[in-house]
UniProtKB/TrEMBL annotation:
Family: Belongs to the 2H phosphoesterase superfamily. ThpR family.
Enzyme active site: H25 (proton donor), H108 (proton acceptor)
Protein keywords: Hydrolase
Gene3D superfamilies referenced in this protein's UniProt entry, alphabetically: Cyclic phosphodiesterase (3.90.1140.10)
Protein's UniProt keywords contain RNA-binding: no
Catalytic reaction annotation: a 3'-end 2',3'-cyclophospho-ribonucleotide-RNA + H2O = a 3'-end 2'-phospho-ribonucleotide-RNA + H(+)
Protein name from the UniProt record: RNA 2',3'-cyclic phosphodiesterase
Gene: thpR
Motif (HXTX 2): 108-111
Organism: Halopseudomonas sabulinigri
Function in brief: Hydrolyzes RNA 2',3'-cyclic phosphodiester to an RNA 2'-phosphomonoester.
HAMAP family linked: RNA_CPDase
Motif (HXTX 1): 25-28
């Protein structure tokens, strides 16, 4: 499974707070704090979203922040065109509920949050530059709530939204591979 392979990249120390397998996910759209009415509107918009499922693959690593002071180490994705189209369709559905997302969509899985002692990501990037994991099928989007704690964020599924799959193709798991 991708989560175990990604968690295995963790190297203790060095000012990095590595994500646990339960914390690993791909965020399709960060929503922030929502009122009950907004949450209801988001749930209705997601329920109306029609999509065919996606095939995604982890490919390479990168970071956010500066080369001398990164903020996040992440794993990237190969060929994100279908994911971008799904994000665009989701944004269109959410336009009546939420303001546009001011952040550019950069599909990634956060591996570690970098503290002040993290230093340059050059060694990590060089070591895992060729990272490529087997592709997997995404058949479900999950709406999560998160609660920040001493050990990072803890996620809880509020609702699940299935892709429109061909007859007989089912997968009842929501492994946080894609969240809204």
């Amino acid at each position: 499974m991708q989560a175990e392979a990604l968690a295995a990249l963790a190297v203790p120390g060095g000012g990095l707070r590595w994500q646990s397998t339960a914390q690993l996910h791909l965020t399709l759209r960060f929503l922030g704090e929502l009122s009950a009415a907004q949450t209801n509107g988001v749930q209705q918009a997601l329920a109306a979203l029609r999509w065919d499922g996606l095939r995604l693959q982890i490919n390479g690593v990168g970071y956010f922040g500066s080369p001398t002071r990164p903020s996040i180490l992440w794993a990237g994705l190969a060929d994100t065109a279908a994911l971008q189209r799904l994000r665009d369709r989701l944004d269109a559905r959410l336009a009546t509920e939420l303001a546009p997302d001011p952040q550019r969509f950069v599909p990634h899985v956060t591996l570690a949050r970098c503290g002040s002692g993290a230093g340059s990501p050059a060694e990590f990037l060089a070591r895992h530059r060729q990272l490529q994991l087997p592709a997997w099928e995404v058949t479900e989007l999950c709406l999560f709530t998160s609660e920040v704690g001493d050990n990072g964020s803890r996620y809880q599924v509020l609702a699940r939204y299935r892709a429109e799959l061909p007859d007989g193709d089912t997968d009842d798991t929501c492994d946080q591979s894609t969240q809204t």
